[in-house]
Amino acid sequence: MNDVTEDCGEYVVTANEVLSGDTVFRSAEATWVRGIDGAAVSKCEDTGFVALGEAQKDEHANIVMGPYLVEVSRESGAIRPVHIRERIRALGPTVRADLALAAQGFSTSEVVDR
Amino acid sequence: MNMHVSPEPNMYRYDEFDRRFVDARVAQFRDQVARRLDGTITEDEFKPMRLMNGLYHQLHAYMLRVAVPYGTMSSRQLNVLADIADKYDRGYGHWTTRQNIQFNWIRLQDAADILDMLANVEMHAIQTSGNCIRNTTTDAYAGAAADELADPRPVCELIRQWSSLHPEFTYLPRKFKIAVTGSPNDRAAVRVHDIGLRMHLNAAGERGWEVLVGGGQGRTPMIAVTVRDWLREADLLPYLTAVMRVYNLIGRRDNKYKARIKILVHEMGAEAFSAAVEKEFAEAPRETLEVDARELVRISSYFAPPAWETLAPFVPEIEEKKLADRGFRMWLAANTAAHKVPGYSIVNASFKPAGGIPGDATSQQMRAVAALADTYSFGEVRVTHAQNLTMPHVRTADLIEVWEQLKQHGLAEANIGLIGDIISCPGLDYCALATARSIPVAQEISTRCADIKKQHDVGPLKLNISGCINACGHHHVGHIGILGVDKKGREFYQITLGGSSAGNASIGKILGPGFGADEIAGAVETVVDTYLNVREQGEEFLQTYRRLGAAPFKEALYASN
Fold first, then answer.
1. Residue from B383, B451, B442, B382 nearest B415 by CA
2. Domains of chain B
3. CA distance B418 to chain A (A)
4. Residue B383, Cβ neighbours under 10 Å: how many?
5. Residue B169: CA atoms inside 13 Å, Cβ hemisphere, count?
6. What is the DSSP letter of B108?
7. How far, in whole angstroms, is CA B281 from its chain's centroid?
8. In which residue ranges of chain B is pLDDT below 70?
């Protein structure tokens, strides 16, 4: 088991909802939410893979597709992907403020309807 | 004002067979979606089916790419695209460099309904993806341009019908793109396509085609080679079939990065490739030639010119307005082109506002252009490969009214063919393959270059931006090209200079080390300012680069480092 004080990074599980194609994140309640702020954070990649394994059951159940781990960091307390690609994927296009996730009216805890 | 309300523009219309085929395809896809949603088929099984129907999954959502055959559409079709944007997307679409439109926020459960809406106006999304022959592109001014030999669209339509679900060419080694030009002034980029066709007339006035093969962009840009100087029009499909057969049989399938026909032509050598095609062509059965000829005549009848009026080429009101209004004068110079019929003009609506997203069109803008086309352009619209719209047949006398109305909808930026008319792929803001953003770079450059007077002073300058090596923004053929790359998690941008997709096509050369996201727009400004300092009287950017090479630009950009 990983030592939580170890600097081994933090990870969330992401996927895309089959029905809408939307980017979704795995919550602590094992549901899928549209906002990254509602994602369950795993300390260290190994722990993340355990969460990913659970999430893959939802791929077999046809709820989501292509789940994978994304490394995140904390920015003013908020969970944000480290890499720019994942950051844009999580938060929406950088070129249209009206299309960014918050502007779409999704609360961070909104559970994907299935 | 002259009302040209015309529900039937001069373009191909479906016959019963076409209609049944597309309707059946929509029903088939509806069933495939239902089976995907109920879990009968997996994503791996579904993916090739949805791609065959133009449905991708991109960074944020499903994306639907709708085919606009050779860029020609009616106002009625454009209105339906606006309806789709409102009902199923987020109120906008994006014109692509293959004269198509993409919708970025499609839900899977809506996809079949959208295809139904498209089928109702004789449109579809078939073969906008996959390793098949994609939408054939052509000159956006086809059928209107003063300099064309003949309208190339009947041949484009013939190719479309031949290549749609062609049983032999549905699973090629890689995707395959054909471009056609009927003008000696190439506006269709035929030398950077898998196959380019260039129309010629012989001494007897008969039409024939120069066949160019093996051009392309992507990670290995190449200029096509001419494999036939002259091909009788009647032999066009047998010859294309021969090219495709050679490629399909010998083209590499072991490595997707070496699977395009350009690699085959390069590895075989143009002479050997050409010989293989000629051998295949010589052995090809000819029994369908008469059918092809009859079909071409039938198709051509749909493209009969509209009912032109006999008009004076000189319109005093326009000349007076030109003298009195600099804004109109600049718009006229940049955004209109010479029409083959006296008294008519080709009008471009610019979807490149300063600071805007190149090629994005709101549903309101689509409807505005559709209404303008109904009133002023026989109901006909073209999508350009530069991500703008063209109204091909506008009475010159109506230009002031058209300009005023385009201004009201933000579509009259006088920048067509200038530095503000940036071609850009969606980049990392939308695309799952991109490695860097391209739209913000375009926005910053177009903001810095917003001064239209300066843009006109700089003159013709094509600036293309791609967000990855796949080169969907055609940066290789930009006079100034920008390629975005990921360098250890940071966006970096390489500049290439000297590219061109015109008749004297060339691939741009990398200038030097790349620039950070906060540096690239300034670097482009330096390149432009350098050109202004070193150009000779009347010399365009590309001519200056070809005369002087990269040295003065390198000096300006890198000397201090």
1. B451
2. 16-120 (3.30.70), 152-302 (3.30.413.10), 423-558 (3.30.413.10)
3. 23
4. 27
5. 23
6. G
7. 29
8. 1-7, 560-561
Mutate to test the interface with B, among A62, A68, A106 (most CBs of B within 10 A): A62
What are the φ and ψ backbone dihedral angles of B108, each rounded to 5 degrees? -60, -40
Note whether B61 contacts A21, CB cutoff 8 Å.
yes
DSSP for B319-344, written as a single string: HHHHHH-HHHHHHHHHHEEEBSSTTE
Give the C-alpha separation, B420 to B410, whole Å: 14
CB-CB: which of A16, A22, A94 is closest to B437? A94
Predicted ipTM? 0.90
Helices B551-558 and B541-548: crossing angle, nearest 10°?
A: 90
- pLDDT single digits (tens) B15-68: 888 999 999 999 999 999 999 999 999 999 999 999 999 999 999 999 999 999
Taking an 8 Å cut-off on Cβ atoms, the answer to whether A19 and B428 are in contact is no
Tens digits of residue pLDDT in A12-64: 999 999 999 999 999 999 999 999 999 999 999 999 999 999 999 999 999 99
Which residues on chain B are in Cβ contact (under 8 Å) with A18?
36-37, 43, 108
Q: Who among B108, B443, B490 is closest to A95 (CB)?
A: B443
CB B478 within 8 A of CB B221: no
The verdict on a CB contact (< 8 Å) between A93 and B429 is yes
> How far away is chain B from the Cα of A43, in angstroms, using its nearest Cα?
22
Helix (H) / strand (E) element for B155: namely helix B153-163
Residue in the block written with tokens 């009195």:
B324
The CA distance from B143 to B151, in Å, is 4
Q: B394 forms bridges with which residues in the sheet? A: B345
Q: How far apart are CA A79 and CA A37, in angstroms?
A: 6
Give the DSSP per-residue string, B174-211: S-B-EEEESSSS-SS-GGGSSEEEEEEE-TT--EEEEE
State which H helix or E strand residue B106 sits in.
strand B101-106
Do the Cβ atoms of B90 and A82 come within 8 Å? Answer: no
Write out chain A residues lying below 8 Å of B489, CB-based. Answer: 82-84
Of B107, B430, B434, the CB nearest to A21: B107
Is the predicted pLDDT of residue A113 greater than 50, yes or no? no
> CA end-to-end span of chain B, whole Å?
59
Asked if the Cβ–Cβ distance from A19 to B443 is below 8 Å, we say: no
A3 pLDDT higher than 60: no
Q: Which chain B residue lies closest to A20 (C-alpha atoms)?
A: B107
Q: What is the mean pLDDT of chain A?
A: 87
